[in-house]
Model the fold of this input.
Amino acid sequence: MRFVYGPVPSRRLGRSLGINVIPFKTCNYSCVYCQLGKTTNLINERRSFFPKEDILKEVAEVIGRVETDHITFAGEGEPTLCKDIGWLIEEIKKITDKPIAVLTNGSLLFREDVRQDLAEADVVIPSLDAGDERTFRRINRPHKDLRIDEIIDGMIEFGKEYNGKFYVEVMLVKGYNDSEEVLFAIKSALERIKPDGVYLLTPVRPPASNVEPADEIGIMRANAILGDVVRVIDPEIGEFSTECFSSAEEAVKALLKRHPMREDQLKDFLGKFGEDLSFVESLDGVKRVEFMGKVFYLYKP
Ligand code: SF4
Done:
């Protein structure tokens, strides 16, 4: 499978069947906490990266044989850079009644075509890690053409027009966006965006740069300032599914590329194929890294 992976356990969406519509690390941000590593293709133009019919064909092949709570556009970069996303959402809705979610950095919601493309999704979750330009540039390291004020205005506009569930997530990174001043700027933006809810997250997988999750004091400060938030700070639980894959190697590479796994998760996953950790250690491109006292495996093609 080239475009579809999982289902994977998600901290917000339960069992989530992932759809990737973007080449590896193609994004208009290069967030310090990105679990995919540094952005190698920093672009801000929307394009068709792959034939949209091929993506739909794969989704149609998988959809009837997996148990999933959501079908989620996420994956290897920013999904709204794919200009076929609206067509894909529309076509997938014709073949399933499973809810469709889009995890996005929200940077292009100021564009009418992007807002229209996401209008038929059931859940849209943009991220907002800063309310001021300086923090935005530090934590998200965006394309030079992007401005936080314009992005916040786009989210406000989207919130007014959109009829589905609309949540904003804030990733809290120690020393970047956990101070009072920065959190008050985020709060003021959220008050204007008026989402249905706010998720407060911390990085739980190895990040692109040498950063750490906010500590308990930072999380409490954020909770106190941002108010009514859902804290999603524990690692996800649940199984990674093998249903989409025909071999252990295909499965391990597809998942570890998009979703670094903890050692315990990977052991369980490999057990379903009758393999153990020595199998992944023999694969080119698979790396073992430590983060916050835990061992993770990731794959860099
Ligand atoms: S976290 Fe998302 S928005 Fe940030 S660099 Fe990674 S893919 Fe792009």
About this structure: The CA atoms of residues 130 and 182 lie 7 Å apart.
